[in-house]
AraC family transcriptional regulator
Amino acid sequence: MNKVYKFSLVEPVQFFKAGQYFAEAGWRHKNIINDGDYELFIMLKGAAYIQIGHTQYTLNTHDCLLIPPHIRHIGFRGSPADTVYYWMHFFPSSPVTTSYVTDEIHHPTNPAAVNLPQQFNVKNFGRLTLLIRQMLDSDNDETAAPLATNFFVSSILIELSHQFMTVINQEQGYTSRFEMIKNWIRIHSHEKLTVEQVATEFKMTPVYLTKLFREYEKMTTIHFINLTKIKQAEELLLTTDLSVKEIAYELSFENEKYFLRVFKQISSLTPTKYRDAYAKTYLNNVEVDPTIPLPKDRDSHQTSAD
């Protein structure tokens, strides 16, 4: 199984050294142990053969290898002619945790964390190359602040993590399959929907469908259906003169009384009180002009470079 390293980027990582290497035929990575620094080894072309501890890795074009500190690594076979790769060393800004490719890393809850596998083939290499060239340019610019290079390395980690997580999610079918289910519910929100109907549409059991909603949305299928309908009801209350009863039937609730109960559970107000409270502020609702919170740490500290 592929080992995954999780880095926190609340603070940028610290750049150490980097470069681009053109290897001759028969080149092997030297026998070395990194003293606290992580190394990213990214292939442009050719092949490299690196052993980390007792595990051997074969790297081909656009493969990326993360080498952790405090463990011996060495080339176990000679590379062919015209082998070219990028290399970079950095120190993490906080403790690093590890796991393996499992469900727990598919949807990370910490937005400041990135997941990097031990070995990974980069799909969109052009995006990564641009960031690496910027990092190398910053490192070789004597007038550039060291902090700039730290941020370039952190951006490289973010890009690698994004590409890795995209592949993982696609392999699990989450991105396309589950988003399709949610969009289908939104499109059909004016109809009378049941869990069984949605499950049948996507050829799965109601139990499995609800398991997906609990895992990815932290709610049941029926709650997501009702939540979608109530969002539609809120818009109708603020943009039309339809009565509460008419809106209930417009959204295919079985009766007005049930609609009133569901609306209050979700909105904490009755439909009438909601209309009275928000009618004058509709033009500034989050769908038209979304509220974007200020960064939590914007004034908490300033970082200076030596």
